């Protein structure tokens, strides 16, 4: 492939219309001085992601799943052993279905929608550290999922008249929400159509695999979250991965690990 | 405090996606002023732009913006403004919120005021409460330009920024880009429309099939294009007489008859042929029903430049 001699393909100095020197902001010292504070940029990301995440269909869908848990609370109250019935409902529906599906829907869309819509370019090309966007996405996901998914679980235990279970759920549901949020935000950055991958993860890994063999619950979020429920006295939790104390460490660790992976991915990925 | 001249340097840059080579061994060095990156759709312009600002990592070679790697150093993004080609926008945001977000993420002390100034610069109303999807295509395009200039960058990369604008808006933005270039910024604008490029600036880079086909002054490129052999189809009631006269005058170097009324002419000087055609037809009492250049499209132009 040749270029005409007058129009050389050799390096050429372009433009030349303006005076050399450029604007004051071209000084590297100014570059460092004009970075936004981490707090202000995380807050800016967080507010944006909240607004893009919160849509009427999502609120209605997750709200309906949350309302179902309240109904299960009513049924549990009618049971002879209402604390146990409430625990079963919270473990098998709330922590295994409601919380993961709610965070899946929100978490994969937090950054995933920006990737799909090719809007990430507006956020990537900024003088901010790469960890901030995934962190803001996890925070935004948790912020929406807590009132819509975790809180109804606590209320369902209250409705069932199982006070101790309600206290345990108050700890278990937010921890599960945090862990799932981390995983699904990372998935949104990693996979196209992450919601389908996430759905397969929830149905196969978090439900089928968790119950199939001895010890498999130790590699599931639902197993560790259910372990926290076992703190409530007088109830038997079918799925326990370990002690409640260990769960308090494992679940945040899952979220942190997922956040680091998401950051790594965000730093290395080509942005479209 | 030393000041660095805004320069963008690509050194042997290639980018491939599996077996597909999108950009192949492109090198250039552009400084202050407006530089137009010209090429047909699919030439690799957008991929090149993504590498210039750090959005994509070159498979081979390197890119430097003011001497720094835009991929590795997030700080250099403070100096870059980008108008991406994609039309998608943040649906829940107004134009002012969109530009304020950019100003905030660039750490400007008063993001709201900066956003207002930037929107006014592109002739948009900062108080407009409509969300971005309610804007016309041209207004969204101007909002994208506003977010690219809100932090007063010294390097501006604009991927097809005039798409969707009406002629007045195009003229205004071309004027803005030229002014930004004349103030010492490095402004790189891509386009696949030759006339747009002619108004943008004198320096051009021509990309075709992922390669840098030519670089230099636009006037030289224009002259090259005007000088290239062209085919012109003429529909007339006297094709044979017209062909003979034009060949005799030397304004056509070849002629082919097609049916009773079609004539295909080869010329090396399209301008001379255009001037000669009507007088010759009048002298030969030939009526002209249609005059159509057959390879004046941009793809043909680039093919010619690349093949030279």
Secondary structure topology:
The complex is a heterodimer of chains A (272) and B (308).
Chain A: H1 28-33, H2 38-53, H3 56-78, H4 82-116, H5 121-124, H6 132-159, H7 163-190, H8 194-212, H9 221-229, H10 244-268
Chain B: E1 8-17, E2 20-30, E3 33-38, H1 45-52, E4 60-65, E5 80-83, H2 95-105, H3 111-121, H4 137-149, E6 155-159, H5 167-182, E7 186-191, H6 194-200, E8 203-208, E9 211-217, H7 218-227, E10 230-236, H8 239-249, E11 254-258, E12 262-267, H9 270-283, E13 288-293, H10 298-307
Helix pairs in contact in B: 2-3, 2-4, 3-4
Word description of this protein:
The complex is a heterodimer of chains A (272) and B (308). Chain A has ten helices and no strands. Chain A is mainly alpha-helical and 272 residues long. Chain A has two domains: 34 residues, no CATH class; 233 residues. The longest helix of chain A is centred in the middle third of the chain and has 35 residues. The two termini of chain A are 28 Å apart. Chain B is elongated and about 75 Å long. Helix content of chain B is 36%, strand content 28%. In chain B, α5 links the parallel β6 and β7. Chain B has 308 residues and is α/β, with parallel strands linked by helices. Classes of the chains: A mainly alpha (272), B alpha/beta (308). Chains A and B meet through α1, α2 and α5 of A and β2, β3, α2, α5 and β7 of B.
How would you summarize what this structure contains?
The complex is a heterodimer of chains A (272) and B (308). With 272 residues, chain A is mainly α. Chain A has helices at residues 28-33, 38-53, 56-78, 82-116, 121-124, 132-159, 163-190, 194-212, 221-229, 244-268.
The topology string of helices and strands of chain A comes to HHHHHHHHHH
| CATH topology assignment of the largest domain in chain B | Rossmann fold
- Approximately what portion of the residues of chain B adopt beta-strand conformation? 25-35%
Helical residues, percent of chain B: 25-40%
Shape of chain B: elongated
**What count of structural domains of chain B?**
2
